[in-house]
Amino acid sequence: MKTTQQGIRQHYEVLIIGSGIAGLTYALNLSELAPNTKIALVTKMELSASNSWYAQGGLAAAPDESIALSSHIQDTLASGDGLCNSMAVNTIINAGPEAIAALIKYGVKFDQNAHNLPDLVKEGGHTERRIYHYGDTTGAEIIRALTHAVKQLPNITILEFHTAVNLITSPQLAIPHFKPDVLGAYVLENKTGLIHNLLSKVVILATGGAGKVYRYTSNPDTATGDGIAMAYRAGAHVSNMEFYQFHPTLLYHPTQRNFLISEALRGEGAYLRSPRNNERFMEHYAPEKMELATRDVVARAIFNEIENDEFNFVYLDIRHKSREFLQQHFPNIYQTLMKLGIDMHTEMIPVVPGAHYLSGGVLADVEGHTDLSRLYAIGETACTGFHGANRLASNSLLEGVVMGKLAAQASLKDLEKPLPNYSAVKLWDSPSTVNTRRASQINAHWRGLRGEMTSYAGIVRTHAGLKDLLQLVRLRKAIVEEYYWQHVVTQDLIELRNIILVAELIVESALNRKESRGGHYREDYPQHAVEPRESMLLAGKS
Ligand SMILES: Cc1cc2nc3c(=O)[nH]c(=O)nc-3n(C[C@H](O)[C@H](O)[C@H](O)COP(=O)(O)OP(=O)(O)OC[C@H]3O[C@@H](n4cnc5c(N)ncnc54)[C@H](O)[C@@H]3O)c2cc1C
Fold this sequence. Notes:
The protein is α/β, with parallel strands linked by helices. It has helices at residues 21-33, 51-54, 66-79, 86-94, 96-105, 138-151, 226-234, 264-267, 295-307, 323-329, 331-339, 395-416, 439-456, 463-486, 491-512, and strands at residues 2-3, 6-11, 14-17, 39-42, 59-60, 131-132, 156-159, 162-169, 182-189, 195-199, 202-205, 237-239, 244-251, 271-273, 314-317, 349-358, 361-363, 375-377, 382-383, 433-434, 538-539.
């Protein structure tokens, strides 16, 4: 059946794509600075669906004193493994105390100790206690408060279940290094299938990460790298795509996917055991630190065990702690596992490593400016160099709040500029597309891509594997691209198209980095190169 998806043209001053901590903070700050600004906040599921909602540990912010701030800066630089942008690190960390004050003002609650002071905790890689948290559901508490605050603002139109498809740009000119203006986005209304033109003076990409590029991930289904793919297609630069951080212990379960089993369990003495013989295998990989070795060492050890065995998981064993201790220290994990029929006091927990955080993304400064005018990227979608080659735990929520505020201030200038020329912008035109529902074909590409990325561009990489993978990914990309242009556009197809592009960018970057550093491990180059080299800049094709 031939069909069209043409929607209507809508005008706003600002279009925010994504409703995680970064997008919501931007919306609140801009509405304070310029209360009459007409904002559209587009999000592909319900307002609260985001990586931000799932954050467990908390938000890192040192007290407002020079020694404490400089220690947080040092820890961030150490974790970034030689590739942090020190300007971004200084700016974001120094803004930490203000970020906490702002969140509290928006109604976020953080745990307090017996003296009514913030109950600050410590996590891996931090030398001080500086993590603000709300039990082990900090992200859900932050998103609860921010979504409530955003819903009170009359200048914001919230469009839930709307998926941005592509950026709308000014006409391309055949001039060397020409970069177009961004004028808005084509946005699919998921329920009707119509694709609307949302035109605006400023576009904010706050679409989060891309964990779904791997088979196992802590990220929810929304994390498909849409913002990175859209920006790249429009001609923006992306960077640091080889640096994916893997979390060593996600729950391995047939129905409950993406559930993170916090590192704090190993911090409290949990053992890792092989399902083959119940042996503690970390003694073969890190005999001194055992289960307390760094995230990347533990993730690689588990990956190795799984690769060399018939099992797809290993066990995490904390049965030696009392039931009361487990209930008190890990209430969310304890209850979630119990609901799934796993009693962590009497049974071992099957776990697998999975993609957790993308340190790379759309090249941006701390104010979110990209190299396309009127386009900003903030939060996990952006690459400011704050995380370098590896993110320090709990620094990403901080980055989202700080960038949300700085981008709101910076974008005021764009709002003062005259309206861009929208006359050449066309409505979505798809008269020759057909509506054949080939869901199984799309699913096969998802499964294939995620499996290949996990095997060849996951925790352990080699030149030969990456080279083969690049061919596979490019073949899939060509097939799916053709499918996209010939078929009715659905959310699943948009996401598949985007994740394949993100996969290609990861593989190209990983091939190019002939060393191991931060979140990137090459079996054929297991050491650091002598000089840290900036990451490959991938220029989008404008
Ligand atoms: C399980 C887990 C635990 C974590 N724990 C911590 C922690 O303790 N501390 C910490 O600092 N960080 C933690 N992180 C990382 C942190 O949560 C994220 O880096 C951060 O929340 C990213 O925020 P964001 O606003 O950039 O993106 P997100 O919160 O992911 O929001 C992205 C938004 O964009 C929307 N979107 C995406 N594509 C489109 C599209 N095409 N059209 C419309 N909307 C779109 C999504 O639906 C979503 O609303 C954790 C992450 C996970 C998954």
